[in-house]
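Task: fold both queries, return tokens.
Query 1:
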Amino acid sequence: MKILLVADKEEPYIWDYFDRERFKGVDLVLSCGDLKAEYLSFLVTMIHTPLLYVPGNHNKKFITQPPEGCVSADDTIITHKGIRILGLGGSMNYSNQPYQYTERQMEKRISKLKRHIRKHNGFDILLTHAPAFSLGDGDDIAHRGFKSFVDLLDTYSPKYFFHGHQHMNYRIQPRTMQYKDTTIVNAYGYHIIDCEF
């Protein structure tokens, strides 16, 4: 399954110079947050494939104006062509704004999803805005990852974990890393990945 990942930065290459051939064969678009609703609606219109998203810490407008033509995966599991995608948007709480959570609040969100996760026999993709703690996150509170995401990876071993929030220009870091059985990808900007399940 070919997936287009997007997060954090509206790419002029896509928005201003869209080339349909570049995205030929894309089966699904997944947004890891902090992108304008208009950008996501543009993508779903131009690529003609489903777009699932979770909100980032800068997406408070989504509360009243969500992206048209797109589907929120926040706090739920969505199945696409047999692939189970668990979405958890937001970042660590650093200024008490919408889509910011303490570690305890994120643990409660996940706890509410446990029955849903069991019903689906786990999930294949973890889709978030923030990274997991010590797995591609930052040192400051605003960019620190969630320890509860590490627990999810340890418990359910999803094939993939896609996140944003940690901009690639913050420091030298790989786009992709491996944690046990899970391939972790930072979706900053955009990235096309051929996923095998």
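Query 1 returned. Query 2:
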Amino acid sequence: MSQTERLDLFSTPILKARLPGHQAVNDALRQAITVERGQNPSGIDRSNIGGWHSDIDMLRWGGPAAGQLAQFALSTASPHLADMHAGGKRDFSFGANMWANINPVGASNALHCHPGATWSGVYYVDDGGASEEGSGGELVLEDPRYPMAYMGVPDLVLKDAAGKAMMSQSAIRPEAGLLVLFPSWLRHSVNTHKGNRDRISIAINLILTPEAPKA
């Protein structure tokens, strides 16, 4: 009997990190978000369904706490990039945009991705009481192998290297102080929030641009 060699290729990195001292940072972020919502109560319509979505310029109005969060996201993501340029490792300039989401009970976010960025993520200011099973509000990440969920026998799935069934979606429960980062091309959504208070999160795009060679 021949021996089968298995290669598990094309994995997708999902990073989870907890912001040190997040309680104080979250208090400052919550205050800034409350002020911004009071000044712009209608927000904007993007992926949000029933919730409030700020403009994407939170680094302008979010104060030092927003800048601290952006730097934490960059320092978390940077070690997980490799520059394969033929001329060697390049210097990159860092850009970011951020926005706040407030999801009351019954709100959700439709399936979408974030074109034009390198890493995207979500940071939880308040889980909205969604820490219990069945309380909703989970971040849902879709398997990027798009056809997998639409094959002829949808209940027949592959096994991973550990022998577990590969599902087409994975959910991450919100938790105050938790940052989740993923490649910006990865499609994601937010389940309907069923907690006992507003679920407050901040979405982040990290945009890295190679700097021009020095003369």
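Both queries returned. Flag for query 2: Residues 22-39 form the longest helix (18 residues).
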